[in-house]
Amino acid sequence: MSEATRKRPDLRGWVVPGVLLLLWWLATALEWVDTRLVASPAAVLEEAWQAAASGELWQGLAASLGRNLSGFALGSLAGLAFGGLLGLSRLAERLVGPTFHALKQIALFAWIPLLSAWFGFGEPAKVAFIALAVFYPVALNSFEGIRATRHELLEVARVLGLTPAQRLLRLVLPSAAPAIFTGLHLGLIYAWLATLGAEYFFSAGPGIGNTMIDGREHFEMDQVIYGLLVVGSVGLVLNRLAAWIEARALAWRGGGR
Amino acid sequence: MRGTGFLSLHGVDKRFPLKEGELHVLGDISLDIRQGEFVSIVGGSGCGKSTLLRLLVGLEEASGGSLRLDGVPIRGTDPARGIVFQDHRLYPWLTVEDNVLLALANSPLDKAERLARVHAHLELVGLKHFARAWPAQLSGGMSQRVAIARGLVNRPKVLLLDEPFGALDALTRAQLQDELARIWQTEGITTVLVTHDVDEAVLLGDRVVVMEPRPGRIRRIVPVDLPHPRHREHPRLAELRSDILQDFTRRQAIA
After folding, report:
1. Residue B45, class by beta-carbon neighbours within 10 Å (0-12 exposed, 13-18 middle, 19+ buried)?
2. What does the alpha-carbon distance between residue A204 and residue A211 come to, in Å, rounded to a whole number?
3. Cis omega before residue B229 (within 30°)?
4. Closest by alpha carbon to B164, among B119, B190, B196, B133?
5. What does DSSP assign to residue B11?
6. B157-179 confidence digits (pLDDT tens)
7. Which domains are seen in chain B, by residue range?
8. Residue A7 binned pLDDT confidence (cut-offs 50, 70, 90)
9. CA B130: distance to chain centroid?
10. CB distance from A203 to chain B under 8 Å?
11. Per the domain annotation, does A205 fall within a domain?
12. Which domain holds residue A192?
């Protein structure tokens, strides 16, 4: 791609959302659909405006993001430590690897009865559920990333006489970094899914998921759709943020070519 | 100048255990390499020439016989023995400078001295303006120059080269061969080059060790009686080359 074409922002990605928005507006304005089931864009905007002005939106967002991030922090730290241990120690892999690979077959939602028995239905249970969702992709990718360290580069470390600590910091971790970032990135996506799931399955409380549940119970589709849009936007922002951090941390992969 | 760096190999034998039996890779290799000498080892694939180099650098252990550097038995890897592999094996997450610096990670020098040493060696291989580049930004020839700088920066007594130019195009290869000859002359370092390129072996070596396979043995040692620097068009080099090549073609004809 030449310099000139690269400078202009590529707007083609906005075509589909634009058309969908237009169809949505037409469908409600011309009453192709029952507006009690599909609220009009104007009603949703009005709802969003009110929620933002009353502070309800920010309270809900803060509560959801707060538990999302604490769950992510807990789950990713545990996943990194566990995956790292399994990757670095053959003994650890022999001992706990098979159990780990068996347990990860259990669908996330199947843990809910056990989690609620241990942690109740409140905030701790929600955070634990999110942490569990994050743990698997982070642990698995860290483990596989560390194991994929190239044999040839390990030989170089031997020839250069690097100490075990130097090998870890200069070779194994940088080499595993792309895989670890993939794990963290997946973890971030799973965490947001699990945040919404947790708000559905555990007790009611502040949160964007609960806003949507309330909307459905009171049959206020504008509130439901507004919640949907907020959830999507937050997911998008988190995703972009992760991609941005990843690109900066792994600048060496681009190679400028 | 380096004070030392002579290699003595005596009755070196290497076998790899297989599921059934064993693979006899090297048999009864005896060879003395003088301080500051350039020795080329040439042979077809499977003659064990790379294994011999891996024994010298300490990545493999001999099954029998002895390898000594300055009379001291070789055990494991050591900064006194530098190596350049066929693939450059640079760490892609480190810049050119940091890749070379890595070889000094445990050197007693302070930070400023290390950097000065790294820059001197990057200059030696003609890459001083690429210190901050990523390996992915370099061509194959440039990457191999960095690998040579990394192999030399620790001031080893011996430089081991395992088909270092085997993956490069002909023009780059010729250029790097000339550079290697120049570096060898300025550094005065004992050098062992493993190659399957007979031209390269006679152009660079004071002696050419010709090997034959199953198990890998020294067939004969050909001295290259020409002073350095050499011109690759010299008729004596062509003579030696066809002489050595006959060893391989004749054997093939019998087989």
Report:
1. exposed
2. 10
3. yes
4. B196
5. E
6. 999 999 999 888 888 889 889 98
7. 1-80+159-255 (3.40.50.300), 87-155 (no CATH)
8. low
9. 24
10. no
11. yes
12. 54-249
Q: Which two tokens stand for residue A111?
A: 């843990």
Residue A193 lies in a domain: yes
Q: Tens digit of pLDDT for each residue in A182-225?
A: 999 999 999 999 998 888 888 777 888 888 888 888 888 888 88
What CATH number is attached to the domain comprising A106?
A: 1.10.3720.10
Overall number of domains in chain A: 1
| In-domain check, residue A67 | yes
B105 touching A (Cβ < 8 Å): yes
Tell me if A71 sits within 8 A of A191, measured CB to CB: yes
Asked if the C-beta of B57 comes within 8 angstroms of chain A's C-beta atoms, the answer is yes
* B105 to A160: CB separation less than 8 angstroms, yes or no: yes
ipTM of the complex model: 0.87
Q: Mutate which of A153, A156, A173, A250 to test chain B, going by most B C-beta atoms within 10 A?
A: A156
Task: Pick the closest to residue B144 from B162, B157, B119 (CA basis).
Answer: B162
Closest CA to A67 of A225, A217, A234: A234
Copy the structure tokens of residue B204.
């660079």
Secondary structure (3-state) at A157: helix
* Main-chain phi, psi angles of B48, to 5 degrees: 85, 10
CA angle in degrees (0–180, nearest 5) for B103-B106-B108? 115
